[in-house]
Design brief:
42% of the residues lie in helices and 14% in strands. By secondary structure, it is α/β, with parallel strands linked by helices. The mean pLDDT is 94. The structure holds NADP nicotinamide-adenine-dinucleotide phosphate. NADP nicotinamide-adenine-dinucleotide phosphate binds next to strand 6, strand 10 and helix 10.
Length: 377
């Protein structure tokens, strides 16, 4: 396993981190975690050098924290940094913080969480975080010795990322990054910005949640076939992230032992500078080819917002595009249902047309919204 240094303390962190959001499940039921297999996988990862495990309150309906807690019995807890997250999307008042945190400790069966993140910061959740005074409550937990470090995970645009990063002495942060999202959300620029400020960056979704590996379109496979060294789509995607020295650890959700074995192998080999210029160019070609099969060329500029009916138009277009580009990947319906708030969903569109008058790309937004509603709702 390759390791990188958590600069503030000099600790060595494994380049592969175990993301416990996509554990193996029984009978396709996302909330029925296969505990025996999950425990075996997490322990094998730790025995193979992984020392960073990431879970969160809502993962697998709370079963992820429980499975992780069980996996870390028998001496494994002391071998890892355990990351868990405070669900900003559930908070209604400052009084919610401690009970939720205590519930997490109970599920994990531990007295201490090394890395505690404010989960999924975006404009809406940031407002809730401030209104409910979440940070001072979390600081008290740290002062009481129940939390090691305070960080945040992020899903919004780059200006907001910089604003959040500059607004508080965060001890680490977590962003989505893969070769399709180099310029999306925080992106490469956000990662480098955080690193330049001395804030360690944890990477999530290196395979875009599996969309870069499941059902790869033929046009993309033909491009990969041009590479002199043959690698799986997963390996190309991991190498693209590992090539950046600013990535402290790369979290992958793994749903089978075979995936774990492959990812252990890849990140024991790939490290900063692991790609040639030719390989970087090939990955760029693949990203362009994916972009060419994108139906709506939305740049996420937000000119269409706010929608008078509350629809989150750029997010809807992202779902609509991804549905086409990643070969109608059924996992997207799960994500949509888990994360997309009812009041921002595309079916709220009343076809007033205000958005289309503002779109610099002149996109037929109402048509895209109606398609998105038909697919996902
Ligand atoms: N804080 C947040 O807001 C947030 C958001 C997202 C994720 N996260 C965390 O970050 C972690 C990583 O994100 P992620 O789970 O989306 O990671 P990811 O690595 O992009 O996607 C994981 C999926 O990729 C597929 N996969 C993994 N290894 C593979 C391999 N070797 N070959 C082929 N397919 C492979 C699997 O799909 P199949 O199961 O379909 O086979 C797996 O479920 C999560 O587990 C979670 O802990 C946090």
């Amino acid at each position: 396993m390759n390791y990188r240094t958590f600069e503030p303390t000099g600790e060595k962190i494994s380049l592969l981190g175990f993301g416990a959001m996509r554990l193996p499940v029984i009978g396709g039921d996302h909330n029925d975690v296969d505990e025996a297999e999950s425990i075996a996988m997490i322990r094998k990862a730790i025995d193979s050098g992984v020392n960073y495990i990431d879970t969160a309150f809502p993962y697998h309906g709370g079963k992820s924290e429980r499975a992780v807690g069980k996996a870390l019995k028998g001496g494994y807890r002391e071998k890892v940094l355990l990351a868990d997250k405070f669900p900003l999307f559930f908070v209604k008042s400052a009084d919610d913080v401690v009970p939720i945190f205590e519930k997490q400790l109970e599920r994990l069966d531990t007295g201490f969480i090394d890395m505690y993140l404010l989960h999924n910061i975006n404009k809406g959740h940031l407002k809730a975080m401030k209104e409910c005074n979440v940070l001072p409550q979390v600081e008290k937990l740290r002062d009481a010795g129940k939390i090691g470090r305070i960080g945040f995970s992020f899903h919004d645009d780059l200006p907001l990322f910089k604003e959040v990063l500059d607004s508080y002495p965060w001890e680490f942060c977590q962003i989505q990054l893969n070769y399709m999202d180099a310029g999306f959300q925080a992106g490469v620029e956000g990662m480098k910005y955080a690193a330049s400020k001395g804030v360690p960056v944890i990477i999530m979704e290196p395979l875009k949640g599996g969309k870069l590996t499941d059902s790869v379109p033929d046009a993309i496979s033909r491009l990969w076939d041009k590479a002199p060294i043959k690698r799986s789509p997963a390996e190309w995607a991991f190498r693209w992230v590992a090539d950046f020295p600013e990535a402290l650890t790369i979290l992958s959700g793994m749903s089978s032992m075979e995936q774990l074995d492959e990812n252990l192998r890849i990140l024991s080999d790939a490290d900063a500078g692991c790609l040639t210029d030719g390989e970087r160019a090939l990955i760029g070609e693949v990203a362009e080819a994916y972009n060419r099969i994108t139906p709506y060329s939305c740049t996420g500029c937000q000119y269409c917002m706010p929608c008078p009916s509350g629809v989150d138009i750029p997010e809807c277009l992202q779902y609509r595009n991804d549905w086409e580009v990643y070969s109608h990947n059924e996992k997207m319906r799960e994500l949509f249902n888990m994360w997309f708030a009812q009041e921002h969903r595309p079916s709220n569109c009343v076809e007033c047309g205000a958005c289309e008058g503002q779109c610099p790309q002149t996109l037929p937004i109402m048509k895209a919204l109606s398609e998105t509603a038909a697919i996902f709702e």
